[in-house]
Structure formats: structure tokens, C-alpha cells
Design a protein that fits this description.
alpha+beta, single chain, 5-stranded antiparallel β-sheet, elongated
Length: 383
């Protein structure tokens, strides 16, 4: 096993387009790191540069103690798993898994032992004589994983490996890949556009957008403390509610947050010092859907007219309108904002047994200690 260190990695194409811009990132020895971001953000380009399939424009890539910038992919001691599986259709499962070992002239007895050990781990023992066409999507993905692990590489690189599977199978394979990585302990770099994969599989998550690294940290940290507006809008489903707001003080010098006609006293914040720099200035206020709570009429901070209810079995998502200006963060490069994006639609998450329906007006409070604030100019988190 080896750590992977990227220092100042940039990829610029001949037409001037910069796919990755000055990326600094460390993948620790034995870590499962997931890079997530929208389509075209530079995540697959980063993986391909680590693999040696894409030449870097500038910067340094180290695998372990070796600088591998000029090394051929076969000399980097990495194993890749592709979105398309890349299996040989005319070869059996056994032959597909064994292929790289045979090319490397590993002794026949050792090949057989490694292949059968991998097949046992991946529950493929009964499939070794079959051709890929006779396997399910999940089994094909396991074969691709088996072909990688028999090589005992220093690093696994996985490029959107689950995107061709149906939703139920993706859930199953997420667990299987995570368990496999923990068992073999190989340093793993996994790229995906699916934030659920990132949040459920990773030791740490790296969020990338327009070729720039936005934040790296444990999944819960990205959810609880997004470093900027992009991460706040990208991580979480439904996404964080973001609104234009202003900060003032009351007669007791306590901070007040106003968005539209709603004013909330920020009494439960652990520290309000950073926010005091925004008194009488615009700020972006963020509220996760989970941080709205039902209240009594006497304790309500706002009243919401429910326009839509999504009953998901394990929870209910309520949508309502506020007379506050919503802040829209562009996620996809070619995303076209609709007229509704300038509206005030707010999402709130409640337990499945909450008896609320469309057309109801409900009293709500906000968990002030969980509110998020961002500088509208830089997009950076306040505090």
C-alpha cells in the first residue's frame, strides 16, 4: 500500500480549456477517498492523470515515495476499474481475472491461487467458467473488481464503477466495494457524480468544481460545515435552503437574522463573533431541511403555507414558500436556470408520521445553532 500525493496538478488542453487547476490533494495510505462533483468538473481527468492515461500540464504526482509523472501506466503499480467494466467478452470469468497476471508471467499455480482467492471474496466461485454475457451487471462489476485485486497493486482507481447499474444494485454494490476495500486495505481513489455514493462509502470526500478543489474532509464534516456556497448546495438531498439575509442587533445587542419578513434571534449560536462583522451587511443564510421543527403558535418563528408534500415512506419532505430571495448556486456547467430558481421554495424534512398535507399552514421554528452563513461576495463560510 502507498499514499498518493498530488501537488499543484494542472491539466490544460491545447484549446486553452483548463480541466484541473492547481490541485493539491493527499490520499492517505490505505484510505478510501472519493472525489465527487458534477459532470465536467475534472474528477475523471484527475483519476486519469494518476493512472498515467492523461498527461499532466504541470505539477507532481507521487505514489508512495516515487514521482510517477513520466512513468507508463503499467509501471505505476495501479489497478483501474472502469464504468464500462472493460471485460473481454470471449474470455471466461476466470480468464478475465487472470489476464493481467498471465501478461506479467506470474507462475500458473500462483495465478490459479490468486484467482480462486479473489473469486471466493467476491462470491464468484460458481461463475468462473461463464462468459461476461451470461452474468448480471453486478456480477460483471465483481469480475472487474476481481481483475484489479488479484494484482495486489499499491492503489485502486475506480472511475464511476456503479453508474451503469440500477438503483437497487448500486446500493448493494456500494456496500460490497466498501467491505472489499476494508478487507484488502489498498489505498483507493474513487470518482463519482453521485453524492450518496461519496457520503456512504468514503473515509474522506473531496469536492471538486470547475477544476478547483472546494473542500476535503470526512463526509459528516462536509454536511455539517460546508466551506462555501457550492459545497453547501451540492452536498445534501434535498439541498440546503439558501436565502439572501441581513444581520442586525436588537436592544440587548443580540444578533438578529432577517430574510424576507421573517426575523430570527440568533440566541443559540455557540459563537457569534464572526457574524458580527456582517452587521448591517448582506449575508447568505442557509438552513438544512432537517433543521425546521414544528412549533406551537406562541413559539413559532415563522408560519409556512405547505404547497407540496413528498411522502417517501421513511420521511416526508414538505415544500413551502417564504417571501425571501432564494440564492441559486449553479451546479452543472451547462445548467440553465428556470424562472422558478429566483423564487422562494423551501424544503423541510419531517418524520413519516407527521400529519401535514398540502394546503396546511404550519408554525415552525429553526434550529439556530445549525444555521449556516456565507459571504455573498466570496461564497466562503462565515466562521
Amino acid at each position: 500500500m502507498s499514499a498518493v500525493t498530488l501537488t499543484g496538478i494542472t491539466k490544460q488542453y491545447d484549446d486553452g480549456f483548463t480541466a484541473v487547476d492547481g490541485l493539491d490533494l493527499s490520499i492517505y495510505d490505505g484510505e478510501f477517498l472519493v472525489m465527487v462533483g458534477p459532470s465536467g468538473c475534472g474528477k475523471s481527468t484527475t483519476l486519469r492523470m494518476i493512472a498515467g492515461l492523461e498527461q499532466i500540464t504541470s505539477g507532481t504526482i507521487k505514489i508512495g515515495d516515487r514521482v510517477v509523472n513520466g512513468l507508463h501506466p503499467k509501471d505505476r503499480d495501479i489497478a483501474m476499474v472502469f464504468q464500462s467494466y472493460a471485460l473481454y467478452p470471449h474470455k471466461s470469468v476466470y480468464q478475465n481475472i487472470a489476464f493481467a497476471l498471465r501478461v506479467a508471467r506470474v507462475p500458473k499455480a500462483e495465478i490459479d491461487q490468486r484467482v480462486r482467492d479473489a473469486a471466493k471474496i467476491l462470491d464468484l466461485t460458481d461463475q468462473l467458467d461463464k462468459k461476461p454475457a451470461n452474468l448480471s451487471g453486478g456480477q460483471r462489476q465483481r469480475v472487474a473488481m476481481g481483475r484489479a485485486i488479484v494484482r495486489t497493486p499499491q492503489v485502486f482507481l475506480l472511475d464511476e464503477p456503479l453508474s451503469n447499474l440500477d438503483a437497487k444494485l448500486r446500493v448493494q454494490m456500494r456496500g460490497e466495494i466498501t467491505s472489499l476495500q476494508q478487507r484488502v486495505g489498498v489505498t483507493t481513489f474513487y470518482v463519482t457524480h453521485d453524492q450518496v455514493e461519496a457520503m456512504t462509502m468514503a473515509d474522506r470526500v473531496a469536492v471538486i468544481h470547475d477544476g478547483l478543489l472546494q473542500q476535503v474532509g470526512p463526509p459528516q464534516e462536509l454536511f455539517d460545515q460546508p466551506s462555501n456556497l457550492f459545497v453547501a448546495a451540492f452536498i445534501g438531498s434535498p439541498p440546503m435552503n439558501l436565502m439572501e439575509a441581513s444581520i442586525t442587533t436588537n436592544a440587548h445587542d443580540r444578533l438578529m437574522c432577517q430574510f424576507g419578513s421573517t426575523t430570527i434571534e440568533l440566541t443559540d449560536m455557540s459563537s457569534d463573533a464572526p457574524l458580527r462583522g456582517f452587521i448591517d451587511k448582506p449575508v447568505v443564510a442557509g438552513i438544512r431541511p432537517k433543521d425546521f421543527q414544528l412549533a406551537t403558535e406562541s413559539t413559532a418563528q415563522l408560519h409556512a403555507y405547505v404547497t407540496q408534500v413528498e411522502a417517501l415512506g421513511h420521511e416526508r419532505i414538505l415544500y413551502f414558500d417564504l417571501d425571501a430571495q432564494r440564492v441559486v448556486v449553479q451546479i452543472e456547467q451547462d445548467e440553465v436556470q428556470s424562472l422558478d430558481d429566483a423564487g422562494t421554495r423551501i424544503a423541510a424534512r419531517f418524520p413519516s408520521d407527521t400529519n401535514i398535507n398540502s394546503g396546511d399552514t404550519i408554525p415552525l421554528t429553526v434550529r439556530v445553532d445549525n444555521m449556516h452563513f456565507f459571504d455573498p461576495d466570496s461564497g466562503s463560510r462565515v466562521g
